[in-house]
């Protein structure tokens, strides 16, 4: 940065870090950037041990800590709150990520929450073990991560499948691996399921196998497999933007603000998976339709490989929380009555909680202000 | 579409509209696209008066209504739920859009809701007049449009400014025109304010001018003005992606999933405005920083022109609802105590309500399934 030349003057005056310019509570700008005279110039530049003072021609005195200038101007890659994602397949079943309920909720230390959110960031999911088997405690746990997201289905849910409801999620049918709310501009960030009870039908013995196994598939793992085995198909699913819809509820017909691809990625970095073939709209006819179907067929085949699928049984006291931008979920068909509670949490709130429990506050905020 | 050639077979079999293939409640696919044999082919094509039957080599019989084929394959521009936006400046004050509370809420007809949502789509805002002066009725009104969005500030709000809270919105200071929640991946869609009361300070007479005028600015109008007067600056604000942040609350540091530009637009079509200079992050140093500041200075100047600004006084019984993706809001400083209630509603839910009250359901869903 050349603050002592004519160029970049606006940048320097806009980013003054003095206590007068930055609201010390909200860390928002406390002045009108555009009220600064266009011809303002530095009249005195005074380097100090911890930063630099600049006296401007309008007599305002700015302060910039060296740490802030370094972070802003240099490569910031080492200082960003970041995590190494662990991609997984079926073998994750031998040691799935889990944390103790009491460490997350009944602790004065943020370590349990740091561990929970950190594991969800690493694996895309985590179990919360030894949870009280009540909807109230489950709701409290989830609200501690972030505000529960309200949709046309409601907020926190606590339901027993009712075949009269117009969504397959509320049936006892098998559901192939999918992400939820593909039809929202911003799909649900986190999703949680807590099985509170599963009782057999009246005509069956209590020890009968009732089905209802849960399925998770790491969408980032599947996408990387696709990229490796068939880079052309990966590019098609990344580039072709599709319509998605929710049309099953009276008076409601939801679609995103625009079409979105199955795989969102920037360069090497995977960002979001959006996949529910049942509520996918019509493949646009002005693209190579055959090529899209071929790519989707390959994607579907990878998702359904035995080595991609992690099957397990939900249990009371063991809350499942997963990242709906990365991990697909499904289940096998079942008999009897299952009572399941859970909720959606917006991704921004989850990421905020993860950052604030795992990294120093100043580092998080400095990084947020530099987000690319 | 040439369903009777070898090409596009996947498309046709994937989009069968027969009652067996499409769940008649949810309108979701009722079959596994990728379980259809790759080598399936049509063996019999039978045009009828209302559509076409195709008998496939795996003995499934598909049906496609002509209307569906026409909509899917032809230019659909005439059939999309659409509205002519009315861009406005200060003169909108002579006849601001409004609807009667009773027509929206206490009516068996959807006409009032159609009018309310239609006017918000056209103007970016609408008043609901003769509303009961209670938070309960305001909440009910808003929930009828769509589910209230929950954030780290809570859901439905009902507050009296308290200088102890760490956000300028909760003070009595002047606020320049801005959009809310620039720091969310998906900023709030609709926003509502209902002034329930404004009482003077104890040391002032009851008829004192207390300030607190409200300000709206049509961001789409300002963007079109910028595009016309300075296309280069428009392009800079459209292309340069910036960081945004909310850092004022203990334990919370929110940022969007990636950087976003001030103006989001595809070709001629404006999509979303994101502008709050106070919670804007640092302009990325790897772009032409000076050019960005010059463009932002021009944008700021347009927003602050007298002919851009619509000033008015909020009143009990007159609920303001506006599109936070288009319209900027602000207020002048005030004395005394103001009690204001309101909420955010997600844009997808609002758009769904608008479409479903203004257009036939089949048209809405067909269009959602074709969204580009």
TrEMBL record, chains A, B:
* UniProt KW keywords: Carnitine biosynthesis, Dioxygenase, Iron, Metal-binding, Oxidoreductase
What InterPro entries is this protein classified in? AlphaKG_dependent_hydroxylases, GBBH-like_N, GBBH-like_N_sf, TauD-like_sf, TauD/TfdA-like, Trimethyllysine_dOase
Q: Signal sequence span per UniProt?
A: none
Q: Which cofactor does it need?
A: L-ascorbate; Fe(2+)
Keyword set includes Metal-binding: yes
Might you name a Gene Ontology BP term for this protein?
Answer: carnitine biosynthetic process
What family, per the record?
Answer: Belongs to the gamma-BBH/TMLD family.
Q: Which NCBIfam families match?
A: carnitine_TMLD
Q: Under what name is this protein listed?
A: trimethyllysine dioxygenase
Query: In which organism is this protein found?
Result: Trichoderma harzianum CBS 226.95
């Amino acid at each position: 940065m050349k603050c002592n030349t004519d160029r970049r003057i606006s940048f320097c005056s806009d980013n003054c870090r003095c206590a007068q310019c930055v609201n010390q509570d909200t860390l928002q700008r406390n002045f009108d950037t555009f009220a600064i005279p266009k011809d303002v110039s530095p009249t005195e530049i005074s380097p100090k041990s911890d930063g630099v003072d600049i006296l401007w021609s309008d007599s305002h005195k700015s302060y910039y800590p060296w740490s802030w200038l370094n972070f802003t101007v240099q490569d910031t890659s080492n200082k960003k709150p970041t995590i190494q994602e662990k991609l997984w397949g079926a073998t994750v079943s031998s040691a799935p990520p889990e944390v103790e309920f009491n460490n997350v909720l009944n602790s004065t230390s943020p370590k349990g929450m740091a561990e929970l959110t950190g594991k969800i960031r690493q694996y895309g999911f985590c179990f919360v073990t030894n949870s009280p088997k009540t909807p109230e405690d489950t709701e409290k746990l989830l609200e501690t991560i972030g505000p529960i997201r309200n949709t046309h289905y409601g907020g926190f849910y606590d339901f027993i499948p009712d075949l009269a409801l117009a969504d397959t999620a509320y049936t006892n049918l098998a559901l192939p691996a999918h992400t939820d709310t593909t039809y929202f501009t911003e799909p649900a960030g986190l999703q949680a399921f807590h099985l509170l009870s599963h009782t057999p039908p009246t005509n069956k013995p209590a020890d009968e196998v009732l089905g209802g196994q849960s399925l998770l598939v790491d969408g980032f793992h599947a996408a990387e497999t696709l990229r490796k085995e068939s880079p052309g198909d990966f590019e098609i699913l990344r580039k072709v933007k599709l319509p998605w819809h929710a049309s099953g509820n009276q008076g409601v017909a939801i679609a995103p603000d625009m079409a979105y691809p199955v795989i969102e990625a920037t360069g090497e970095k995977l960002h979001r998976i959006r996949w529910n073939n049942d509520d996918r709209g019509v493949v646009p006819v002005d693209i190579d339709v055959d090529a899209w179907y071929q790519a989707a067929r390959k994607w579907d085949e990878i998702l359904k490989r035995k080595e991609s699928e992690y099957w397990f049984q939900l249990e009371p006291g063991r809350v499942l929380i997963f990242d709906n931008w990365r991990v697909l979920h499904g289940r096998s068909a079942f008999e009897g009555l299952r009572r399941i509670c859970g909720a959606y949490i917006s991704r921004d709130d989850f990421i905020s909680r993860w950052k604030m429990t795992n990294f120093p506050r100043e580092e998080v905020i400095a990084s947020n202000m530099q987000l690319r």
